[in-house]
Amino acid sequence: MTKLAIGIDLHRCIGCNTCSIACKMQNNVPDGMLWNRVLTEGVEMFDDAVGVYPNLSRTYLPVACQHCENPACMKVCPTGATYKDEQGRVEIDYDRCIGCRMCMGACPYNARVFNWNEPVRATGFHYGDAGVPVRPRGVAEKCSLCKERTDRGDEPMCVHCCPGDARVFGDLDDPDSAVSRLWRRGGHVLLEEKGTRPQVFYVN
Amino acid sequence: MDKRKALFSGRTMVVVVVLAAVVLAAVGCWVAQQMYGLGITGMNNSNSWGLYIMAFMFFVGLSAGGLIVASSAHVFGIESFKRVSVPAVITSIVCICCAGAFVLIDLGGVARVWRMFVGLNFISPLAWDMIVITCYLVINVLDLVWLVRGDERKVAVLSRVALPVAILVHSVTAWIFGLQIAKAWYSAIMAPIFVASACDSGLALLLICLLALDRAKLFKFDRDLMKSLAGLLAVFVAVDAFFIACECLTMGYPGAGEAEALAIMATGKTAPFFWFEIIGGLAVPFLVLVFARNREKPACVVLASALIVLGVFCKRAWLLLTSFTVPNVYGGNGITLGTAAAQVGDAGDVWTTLGVYAPTLPEVVVFAGVVCAGALAYMILSKCVLPKCGGEQ
Fold first, then answer.
1. Which of B30, B106, B329, B354 to mutate to test the interface with A (most CBs of A within 10 A)?
2. Range of the domain at A102
3. Coiled-coil regions in this chain (chain A) (predicted)?
4. Rounded CA gap, B86 and B22, in Å?
5. pLDDT tens-digit profile of B130-180?
């Protein structure tokens, strides 16, 4: 079995948002939404800090679909549009999505975005990988773990572009992979108590 | 036109015209929603369900309540309650159709809804809901037909199926929310709370309808019967209040986790809805109905019933919206809204750290239109069906 995963070394994350934009470019993500967000933890404003001077700290948390082993979104999808593929990725068949948004309520990570309107792109044309399906109005979408790139054996675009080398992509079922080695350095997942068993993990 | 005039006359016709006008406006707004997308509503990525889903929960409850009373009468042989069976089943049919309409209206891709028939995921509570609501509607229609024909034996048999299905239909609606680990909805008491609020709001609506039918001289609503139904309503309100109290205590006592959601309900953004429900929807109606003297007065019964129905609507609001208020993974800038403003505006229009939602005018018009269509259907059905069951009068 293959269990594709991304490990993020938060110590190396500089909060530059390159992953968000790389993802947006690669996947033709329309205006007004992102598949991958970089949060500044514990504050309202991006790049704000926690604490009172001189005891300040600032940490970043990149969040996208966690490609859970036990995906809450997949269970509640009435048409089976959301599915777990044989590589361990959580994917969406947009043709089957009826836009009921059960998945958006179910996802504990707010990973999903919805095409409330006709998608708009500042460029006026589609961009990114030609293999990425174009999503119509009225369907949910989210990080696909760069399905089109990873199918070809490439890394996801966020991993490829990260200037701090904070992101590691690979197969968690292969104990010798870089991502497995990173996991053994003390990986933790978001909202572990929800039991979703994410395949995206973090190392401090 | 002549036929219409024969059906309704004078002042009733004015009401019919007004209702029809609202329905037409709503159809217009719905067409606009199909053309431009759900973006014309107030929903966004931080708060992905709104007024339509509140209304869906609300109407499933109103429907189930009516049928629970009607079928209990036949299952347990409560002779006096049997007399309200026909109006109760009509209420139930109209309300479940409204509920179904709201789910379909809420879909982003209603044109792809046939996917539900070819690739249904039986693990999804929404799939259960579709199946149960369909069964429920069929049972209701059969019930009405057999009641009108006076086929007492068939009605008695059907009622034994109808009662559990009526309870199930609202439990399944509760499970759409109650089984979601991501939200404060995740609670075993969700289904009992939904059934309790279905019983109180459904019976309250039934009482209002019966008094209206009595006034329209379509149905003779015996005052003794009103008194005993109002007594039953007081019991339902007390049960509902008890369940809500259990839930709130369990949420708040540990002082962590769900206590945050309770704080939002009690003092935060959804507090007006919460307190209206507690005071206006439970405490006041209970205090009115608990006295036998008040239960004899139609005005008191109508007032209490209207408060209960409104209170349960407010409950749908706080129940749904509270869980969207604070995302589990919190941080700046938060969530991308995905709205029309976010598509064209600057960063301030794209992001929110907390859940934001306010229904828009088209959304409210569509909501009002479905309610008015329900009222119209109720008037027409009552007018056509009730005179045929002479024995009931």
1. B329
2. 4-203
3. none
4. 27
5. 999 999 999 999 999 999 999 889 999 999 999 999 999 999 999 999 999
Q: What is the CATH number of the domain that holds A161?
A: 3.30.70.20
Domain count, chain A: 1
pLDDT band at B392 (very low <50, low <70, confident <90, very high): very low
Q: Which residues of chain A have pLDDT under 70?
A: none
Q: What is the DSSP letter of A172?
A: T
B38 secondary structure, DSSP code: G
Q: Which residues pair with A56 in a beta bridge?
A: A51
Residue with tokens 């609020």: B197
- Whether domain B49-331+372-392 has CATH 1.10.10.60: the reply is no
Give the tens place of pLDDT for each residue, A91-105: 999 999 999 999 999
Q: Is B390 on the interface with A (CB under 8 A)?
A: no
Q: Of B346, B181, B340, B337, whose CA–CA distance to A37 is shortest? A: B337
Q: On the CB side of A41, how many CA atoms lie within 13 Å of its CA?
A: 12
Contact (Cβ atoms closer than 8 angstroms) between residue A106 and residue A66: no
Q: What tokens appear for A110 in the block?
A: 């707010």
Q: Which two tokens stand for residue A134?
A: 């174009």
Q: Distance between CA atoms of B264 and A181, rounded to whole angstroms? A: 42
User: Under an 8 A CB cutoff, do A120 and B343 touch?
Assistant: yes
Q: What is the ipTM of this complex?
A: 0.95
Phi, psi values for residue A203, rounded to 5°: -125, 130
